[in-house]
Amino acid sequence: VFAISGVVLAGVQEGIHAVFGAMGTENHFKDIEFGFIKEKITPYCTSKAPLTKGMYILGSLMPATIIGLGFGIAGVITGNFLLMIIGVCQIFAGAGDLLVTSMLLRYKTKGKNVIIMDHPTEVGLIAYERN
Question: How far apart are the C-alpha atoms of 50 and 56, rounded to whole Å?
């Protein structure tokens, strides 16, 4: 049950990235792309269009917030240890997203208009500044 929930929730996590990413692009879901990295056994969701800093942060944090905190809180409220552990594991599963978000939060725009793009080949992002 635990392993199956991890696989299913990995897909749900990418779906949440897609929903919030699509909210920040002009063409919505047409700008969202899904994939799977076989070598790392990792699904991913990426935006082909630029996002504002705020939308990138929102889309990055939502899966761990919704799934991780949701299951964790439900587990604590109901006393269900499995739900709580699934929530904790989903927060850990979002560690990469949290790392990228923390880097972006430390990035000072100094009043410039900044757009963010997912990196085309690596985990992470590219920030473009407009004067």
Answer: 9
Q: Could you read off the pLDDT of 74-99 as tens digits, one per residue?
A: 999 999 999 999 999 999 988 889 99
- Cβ atoms of 45 and 21 closer than 8 Å: yes
Report strand pairing: 51-52 vs 42-47.
Answer: unpaired
pTM listed for this prediction = 0.86
